[in-house]
Amino acid sequence: MCSLIMDNVSIVRIFILSGFNETMNYRVPLLLTTLLYYCVILFINISLVLLIVLDESLHEPMYILLSSFCINALYGTTGFYPKFLSDLLSSSHRISYEGCLLQAFIMYSFACCDLSILAVMAFDRYLAICRPLHYHSFMTKRRLSQLVCFSWLTPFCVFAINVVLTARLKLCGIKIQRALCLNWLIVKLACPEADTFSNNISAYVILVVYLSHWLFIIWTYIYLIKTCVRSREDRVKFTQTCTCVPHLISLMTFLFFLDPVYMISGSTRLPQSLQNFITIEFLIIPPVMNPLIYGFKLTKIRNRILGLFYFKRTSKLRVSCSPNKNGAK
C-alpha cells in the first residue's frame, strides 16, 4: 500500500508555489508595484535596444553587446514577471510540471548569459585598449556574431542538459517553497531512492565553467587597470571613453545579487517573504540598473537620449511660440 502511494505521489504533473502564502495580505499593492516595475523594465530595455538598432553610428561592437545585454534582461524578466503577476491575481498558485522546468531553464540561462556577455564585453575592452591596432581587424562583424552566439548558446546548451537530467528524476513532493521554479528546488523534491549523482556532477561542471568566466573577467580588468594607470591619458580613456566602469559595476551587481542568493536562500530560518526577495533580487535590480548605468555613462548613448529630449522640447516650444494665423495681421 505504501509503495502504491509513493508511486502515485512521484508522478508529478503540477507544482504548488507555496512562496505566496505570506503575500496575500498585501496582494493588491504588490501587484500594482510589480506591474509598474515590469513596465519600467520593458520601457528602458526596449528603448535602449531600439536606439542602438535604429542609429547606425551605434552599430559598433560595444553597443551591439549592450543591446544583447538588454535583450537578455527582457528574456529573463519575461520568464518571471507575467507568471508572478498572474499568481498574485489568483488564489491558487500552481504551475505545470513542464512550465516549472521551462521557468527554471529561463532563470538559470538568463543569469549565466549575463555573465557570458560580461566576459565577451571584457574581451572587447581588452582588445580596444591593449591591442588598438589589431582591434578592427579582429573584431569583424563575423567575429562579433560568433561571440554573441557564444554568449547565448553556451548557457542554453548547458542548462538544457541540466533540465533534461532533472526531468528524469522521480519526485515525491509537489510544494516548491518559493514564488518561482529553480532547478535546485525541483531536485530537492526527488525521492530518497532517486539517483541525483549526475545532477550533482552537472552542477559542479556548470560551476567550473562560469567560475572560469568570472576569473577571466577579473583578470582582464586587473590587466586593464594596470595598463591604464600608467598615464593620465589612459586613465581618462578608461573612465570616460570606454565601457569599463559600467562593466565593473554590472559585474559587481551580478556577483552581489546572484552568488549569495543560492547560499542564503536555502535557509529555512529566514521569513518566507525575505527568502522570496533574496531569490528574485537578481531579477529586480540588474534589469533596470544596467541599462541606466550604460545610458548615463556612455557618451554616445547619453547624447542621443538628450538629443531626443531636446528635439521634442524645442519642437513643442516652436509650436507654442508660432503666431496664430487667424490672429496675426
UniProtKB/TrEMBL annotation:
Membrane association type: Multi-pass membrane protein
Subcellular location, record wording: Cell membrane
Official protein name in the record: G-protein coupled receptors family 1 profile domain-containing protein
One Gene Ontology CC term in the entry: plasma membrane
UniProt signal peptide: none
Keyword Signal: no
Transmembrane residue ranges: 35-54, 61-81, 101-123, 144-165, 201-224, 245-265, 277-296
Glycoprotein listed as a keyword: yes
Source species of the chain: Maylandia zebra
Keyword annotations from UniProtKB, A to Z: Cell membrane, Disulfide bond, G-protein coupled receptor, Glycoprotein, Membrane, Olfaction, Receptor, Sensory transduction, Transducer, Transmembrane, Transmembrane helix
Residues covered by the G-protein coupled receptors family 1 profile domain: 44-294
Gene3D superfamilies referenced in this protein's UniProt entry, alphabetically: Rhodopsin 7-helix transmembrane proteins (1.20.1070.10)
Primary location: membrane
Domain of life: Eukaryota
